[in-house]
Amino acid sequence: MNEITRIKSDKKAAPRRTEMxxxxxxxxxPPTNIQGTALIVVIAIMAFLACLTFGAVTMVRATAAGWQxxxxxxxxxxxxxxxxxxxxxxxxxxxxxxxxxxxxTQGTIMDDAATARLLxxxxxxxxxxxxLPVPRLVIITIDEQNPPxxxxxxxxxxxxxxxxxxxxxxxxxxxxxSMASTTVWIGTGxxxxxxxxxxxxVVFATRGAISGNRHIVEVxxxxxxxxxxVAREFQKHFLKISLKGSAAGSAVAAILFAVLGAWQASSRxxxxxxxxxxxxxxxxxxxxxxxxxxxxxxxxxxxxxxTARLTVMKTIDEIDLVRSDPARSDGLPAS
Length: 335
Hints:
The protein has helices at residues 2-13, 34-72, 87-99, 112-123, 150-160, 170-212, 214-222, 227-266, 271-280, 286-324, and strands at residues 74-79, 104-109, 136-142, 164-167. By secondary structure, the protein is an alpha+beta fold. Helix 3 (87-99) packs antiparallel against helix 5 and helix 6 packs parallel to helix 10. 25% of the residues are buried. It is elongated and about 105 Å long.
């Protein structure tokens, strides 16, 4: 009985074995260094330029579409004054003839006051239209989905009111469409240039990171680490860098558009705001623009990550090539 008690007491007195802990492994590349910080700044600048270009293109397209829609909804009948012409009767006749066509919905005759306001920026106030050979206008609203026969309307007006001239604004619509298309192509070209410069920057940055840590890559590769493992570590490193940079640049671009939109909304009816509205439209890319800015940020991060992976895989292949034939080491980065 005493022996059993002694054995139990010895077991209780024996020190417990400490549990083994696996030391966490450090990343192949340091999380932050001078090169990584510089690359974040470069990617942020490129992301800002890309998002700014995308937002500007979206804004100009929306403005051009609005102009095109407004012009396409109306046609103008211009009646030139001539000797012996009853202007009021001619205006009413032109309006009646235009509204007789299928596809027209409403007609408005611009009176003397409206015509004077239209000419006020050039001729000043206090105009007497009876003393000036000023053409008078009839504005006809049309159905965009079912427009009238402009050729037949023009022929009928020329017979009934010879002084009338029909302007369907096709020239302006064609110019707006051409301008919008040109803007889109220019914006697309700028985006391609930005993405190309970003890819080249990442290639050189990755090669520089590999050159600075080439001994680590060679040791890992020598002890049997798979190329995909090494590439994955570099990929994670550059993914974090690209996400930080692209998020910063995209956020600055979105904030800039929001600030400009708020300024434009708070300063309406001022010369500066009116001129900006006339040239660029509303400083708001809309939901599509902000979604595009976010998509641009993701695209930049993916391009950066893919470029880093491909560059690392190519560099590892170069290491294998030199190892198999040291004579081929000419022109390759030194370890």
